[in-house]
Amino acid sequence: MAKFELRVKYIFFFLLLAIFLTFVFHFSLTGSFFSSQDMGISYNKTCVTNVGEEIIRGNSLSGFIEDGESVRVLFGYYDCNTPNRNDLIIYSHSGREDPLIKIVRGVPGDFLGFLETDNGWNILINDKILRNSEGNLYAINKQRYKMLSLYEGVIPDGAYLILGNLVTGTLDSTQYGLVSVASIIGKAEKIIPD
Question: CA–CA distance from 18 to each of 6, 21, 28, 184 (Å)?
């Protein structure tokens, strides 16, 4: 019986050691014991070149982030991380001095489609109608549809569908098409006031 109890203690000890080492390894990679999804923190921040706070100017994210609110920006974040659906990103749009802030709605490999309705065209990703943060359906006009429909089909590697939160479209992919990951200059995080 004593040998059995000793074996159980050894097994328990090694199990605890394995759990501890897993946490230590995870912490060494992320700087946190929690995942990025749990805490809004990246798995890899080594590529972040600067962290800044920016004030939102405009209403393209109205209902999600309002004009005058602040966001934290991790510049260079996507140099070593892949943009994910629903990431809040900072995008360098040619011809504009100030970057744009948008939401990633479509990623490489997604199928971009459209559904014509009485209110315009709904945007579909993988056969599901896109909704904004308030649950409203995106419904774009004919001009925006003509631009974005050029990209109908599978979103290619390195390209992303980025949208504001206004369902009729903003200065986003509905006006200039899919964007390249090379033009995404940082990840934004909503700052929740104390």
Answer: 18, 5, 15, 39
Buried b (16+ CB within 10 A) or exposed e, 164-181: bbbbebbebbbeeebbeb
The beta strands (E) that lie in 118-183 are given as 120-125, 128-129, 139-140, 153-154, 159-163, 179-180
The total number of structural domains in the chain stands at: 2
Give the DSSP H/E element, type plus range, for residue 102.
Answer: strand 100-106
Assign 38 to helix, strand or coil: helix
CA 94 to mean position of chain CA atoms: 21
Q: Which residue has the tokens 């904004």?
A: 132
Q: Is residue 44 part of a domain?
A: no
Output the CA torsion sign for 79, 50, 163, 125: positive
Mean pLDDT by 10 residues, the chain (194 residues): 64 61 45 40 72 89 91 93 94 83 96 96 96 94 95 97 93 93 93 76
Distance CA 152, CA 145 (A): 10
Residue 45 located in a structural domain? no
3-class DSSP state of 122: strand
Which residues, other chains included, contact 33 with Cβ-Cβ below 8 Å and sequence gap of 6+? 23, 26, 27
